[in-house]
Specification:
Elements lengths: L1 H25 L5 H15 L12 H20 L2 H11 L6 H28 L3
Helix pairs in contact: 1-2, 1-3, 1-4, 2-3
Membrane topology: Multi-pass membrane protein
Subcellular location: Endomembrane system
Keywords: Membrane, Transmembrane, Transmembrane helix
Length: 128
Amino acid sequence: MLIIKKLKAKAKKLMLDLVVLHLAYQNSKTPWTAKAIIVITLGYVLSPIDLIPDFIPILGLLDDLILLPLGIYLAIKLIPKEVLETSRILAKTYEWERKKSVMAVLIIALIWIGIACTTINLILYNKY
């Protein structure tokens, strides 16, 4: 039971960190490098496709356990302290807007569809 409690606490902290990144992205004082890493990290979280599919034993979950915390860590290191503190305070009471979340997922899905269509087109019509 102790392990489950620890996992729930870590998951809750992870969700809070994602909200902090979302809020920091909206702040004009956040540098563009941090914003780029935030977009990549949040895009990875919302993406319906993983780099390594989860059904592959061990490796499937390993990419989530490494890439997501790494993206959060890098973004937090690049965000100015005052922006980070403000975002952490706001994140505790922040409510996600459902419309924005659905739009973000749709945009990411369209990007993946575009990549798939381009790849198929290159394979079928461009002989190397």
